[in-house]
């Protein structure tokens, strides 16, 4: 059995200590996903597993046998960027760009969570359908830190994609 | 990270059998355990991956709700019945960590998460919880996040989680299984005080695994979770209050309260319920409730602020629930 990353199969790592993050970067050679803190605190390593965003630094690769992982490389390419990637460029949603792959994976999954009607800590009425206010975007993206402080433009990029999808 | 032997448990009995062995730990979402293994705070020889056991179901049980040990924090918080009938639980979970972490964090792992004491997570420091007998770095050190209730001379750590505080207010029950027996323990009695054995966070024995948490029939009322922290999102609580309150004819008919990040366990004091129920809500009464809560409170310098903070947070929650002007 193997791990599927962006639709391609990779054999499981031999050393069970390998985090999913190190597996992506070192063994699958997909270096788009970044290592910031390696302790679940910054979100730079955010990827999607079965459509759900997680911190790949706190997950052992070996536990993902048979899982379908989507990384930033799976969301678009230089020649054909995804909608969220284009919006980050259009809105200057970054400076150094280190946090950006994590931000984009996180934001992509976040819009699916909104579409599914999941509440957040910023949702006033837990039983109502949440709407994508700036306050909601900020709370839902709080797991992705940006040392360059590109936050206002990140919010703008996400709002743009959400508006286009709505 | 130290090398370990990785085993994937195929059945619950298998998992219980494996985890009964020395130096063996269960792995659920890994968001706490993998972190602590990287820091070499946890150094299991064998890691038993329980992540694929069929313990993720959330289902009605009588009028209540049974939440499997492997249900993720996300699955619990977005469950329609949790949102409408146990909102204090949804609020507590949503106030914790981030969406990425909650997507991996599980019911069992969340209950068993270890303290965030900085001496516990730094293997160059003394810590009776990590290494019994080595001393406590925090008591005379930096104790900002530490306990003001129920601590001992051996350990002043807090249980840092949010979910369990709401579960304690709701009077939920933890279901536990080992190879030989199963038992259930009220959430209020699941975590323990440090005493002379701070290495034990809770009542689980080797080979015992959490299989589920069950919520009693919903009671409605006003349900609030107030979490005070260093920043408004993505931080552990300095103090939190979970409250399930009801009033009739201007008097409390229900006042189930639990407090987080003040002690080694979610704090529940039945005397507070006894004081409030039957009485008219007033600021003076809320102050008396805080007197009971903080009767034996003791600060360790840096965390002295938690004592007045707990008093004010309790008053704020009771004001919000009853409409009394603060
Ligand atoms: C940056 C960061 C911020 C966080 N902020 C918050 C916060 O604000 N509030 C909050 O409440 N939490 C917070 N957390 C903690 C998070 O909620 C926990 O890490 C998570 O709930 C643990 O669940 P898990 O399934 O990943 O457990 P694991 O890491 O897999 O396991 C944790 C422990 O539980 C044991 N265990 C797991 N399942 C069982 C079982 N079924 N039976 C017996 N033992 C079991 C394991 O052996 C291990 O000792 C934060 C974590 C991080 C990294
Ligand atoms: S408070 Fe407890 S966990 Fe922290 S250093 Fe002291 S013994 Fe260790
Ligand atoms: S590298 Fe994973 S959260 Fe920072
Ligand atoms: S763009 Fe530099 S850290 Fe976010």
Task: Describe the protein in words.
- The complex is a heterodimer of chains A (166) and B (326).
- Chain A is of the alpha+beta class and 166 residues long.
- Chain A folds into two domains: 2-74, Roll (Ubiquitin-like (UB roll)), CATH 3.10.20.30; 83-162, DNA polymerase, domain 1.
- Chain A has five helices and five strands.
- Chain A has a five-stranded mixed β-sheet with strand order 2-1-5-3-4, covered by helices on one side.
- The termini of chain A are far apart.
- Chain B has helices at 12-19, 33-38, 73-78, 80-85, 87-94, 99-104, 107-111, 163-170, 187-190, 270-276, 283-293, 306-322, and strands spanning 5-8, 24-27, 46-49, 58-61, 64-68, 173-177, 182-186, 209-215, 222-228, 239-248, 251-260.
- Chain B is built from twelve helices and eleven strands.
- By secondary structure, chain B is an alpha+beta fold.
- Chain B has a five-stranded antiparallel β-sheet with strand order 4-5-8-6-7. A three-stranded parallel β-sheet of chain B has the order 1-3-2, covered by helices on one side. In chain B, strands 9-10-11 form a three-stranded antiparallel β-sheet, sandwiched between helices.
Number of helices of chain A: 5
Ions, cofactors and other bound molecules: flavin-adenine dinucleotide, iron/sulfur cluster, FE2/S2 (inorganic) cluster
Lateral strand order in the biggest sheet of chain B = 4-5-8-6-7
Q: What is the CATH topology descriptor of the largest domain in chain A?
A: DNA polymerase, domain 1
- The level 1 CATH classification of the largest domain in chain A is Mainly Alpha
Share of β-strand residues of chain A: 5-15%
Computed CA radius of gyration of chain A, to the nearest angstrom = 16 Å
The figure for the number of domains of chain A is 2
Low-confidence stretches of chain A: none
Characterize the largest beta sheet of chain B: strand count, sense, and whether it forms a barrel.
Answer: 5 strands, antiparallel
Helix content of chain B: 25-40%
The sequence of SSEs of chain A as H and E is EEHEEEHHHH
The largest β sheet of chain A comes out as: 5 strands, mixed
CATH architecture of one domain in chain B: 2-Layer Sandwich
Determine the most extensive contact between two protein chains.
A-B, 35 and 33 residues
CATH-assigned fold name of one domain in chain B: Enolase-like, domain 1
> Any idea of the CATH class of one domain in chain B?
Alpha Beta
